[in-house]
Design goal:
Elements lengths: L1 H10 L1 H8 L13 H13 L8 H4 L3 H6 L13
Helix pairs in contact: 2-3
């Protein structure tokens, strides 16, 4: 997971993809920018959570948080 994160950080694919996608979410409800949501979903798929219905549990997982550039012990949650 950490190797994938470093590769993604260098390539910036999720950030570049987020720049060309239109974010249709209402701004008052947005907690996570689109590039973070995309990278989290990509990592979930790579880690064999293809159906992406495990994000509620994974947003608390310390190793998954570390892979998504959050501190494992922080109170910050990943997107759900």
């Amino acid at each position: 997971m950490l190797l994938l994160r470093e590769k993604e950080r260098k390539l910036g694919l999720c950030k570049r993809k987020a720049l060309v996608l239109r974010d249709r979410r209402h701004a008052s409800y947005v907690q996570h920018d689109l590039s973070r949501v995309l990278s989290q979903h990509v990592f979930q798929i790579i880690c064999r959570y293809e159906d992406v219905n495990d994000c509620i549990e994974l947003r608390l997982d310390p190793l998954f948080k570390l892979g998504c550039e959050e501190l494992p012990g922080s109170n910050d949650l990943l997107a759900n």
